[in-house]
Write a structure and sequence with these properties.
single chain; mainly beta; eight-stranded antiparallel β-barrel
Length: 107
Amino acid sequence: MLAVRGCGVFSPDTYRVQLIGGAGRIVVVGESSELGTNRAELEAAIQPAGATAQCTINGKYLVEALEACPGATVLLQFGQPRKPLTVSPIGGTGFWAATSPILTDAE
């Protein structure tokens, strides 16, 4: 089982989102000077996929949590050194997918 250790997310216009996760749950916190703080806990299925991991998140809750951030794709910065994780919608399914080569094994 893989787990998200934690990350900071910065959209192109510097709105901030944090993901904190593990054991199949991810907490998403979005912050915006205009919209304030939006926090959501959501279920996540995290599965290994070769050298990467894929994280599938229910789009309804992800959209609510990320509403302070513009655009359909957000780059998430993970760990040291920071690397991108791309979150994007899976067409017509109501889910978003995230992929990163540096999601690490849960201890």
